[in-house]
Amino acid sequence: YDPSLTWGAKRALINCAMSAFEVVGEIPLDEEVMKDPCLSSKAKAKAQGIDKAPLRILFMHGLEGGPHSTKPRFLKAHFSDVECPAMNMGVLTMSAENSFARSLVRQFWRNWPWEWKAAAARDSLERCLEVQAQAIEEFKPDIVVGSSWGGGIALLALARGIWRGPTVAIAPALRLILEKAGETSLEWGDVERQLAECRDHLTLVHGTEDHTIPFQYSEELAAQLGCELIGLEGGDHSLNRALLSKNKLRDIVLECDRKSQPVHVAA
After folding, report:
1. What pTM does this model have?
2. Would you say 179 and 143 are in contact if contact means Cβ atoms under 8 Å apart?
3. Which terminus of the chain, N or C, has less C-beta within 10 A?
4. Tens-digit pLDDT profile for residues 80-93
5. Under a CB-based contact definition with an 8 Å cutoff, are residues 187 and 205 in contact?
6. pLDDT digit string (tens) for 97-127?
């Protein structure tokens, strides 16, 4: 491997290596090669001896994230079919159709000024939920994974009955959003009650040192619902280090899917 090679030459070598995988199995690649952006996630997974699990995963990204963020790229390297639709979300990003800033502007001629913040939060939530509802209908996932803002959308999809399957919600932001926005038409208590029917399908994941969304929020939700909570000691809000090292996110997803499978009792 020569780092001075052109992009085209690297691509040709990678294609040859991928063909060789089928014949000789794993090919050890050094750390420098694994960092190469020309190397696909599939090639990296094979180089590390990772077999892709046959699951269809719908990933709901965070507030400023997107289809090419760290977690969906990790999942694509470990699972056979991963979809991460862009929610076009952000806080102050006016170019993002569903951002809070754009939603706020839309309220100027619809609501009284004191209603703008709550109405804008609701508008952004509903627009992003619509994106994911369409993805659920068309993609037909086996499992849903959501992080932060996306974790909140995943909870909302469960509560509304849009999705009833296994769900991994990583540091879900829904309660914090509703509290900060002063929302009244979409109450957190109502969401909690609606989620009670889905507790067997829900796994919460949260870092104990999350300074963006308090770990306490997931603790209280897990206690209220009786669902599983995986607390990651010392984990921050993104949890990229805690979840992606040693393939922990992969293991959590597989376990969540396993628990949701029906138990067959021998006659």
Report:
1. 0.77
2. no
3. C
4. 999 999 999 988 88
5. no
6. 898 889 988 888 888 787 888 888 899 999 9
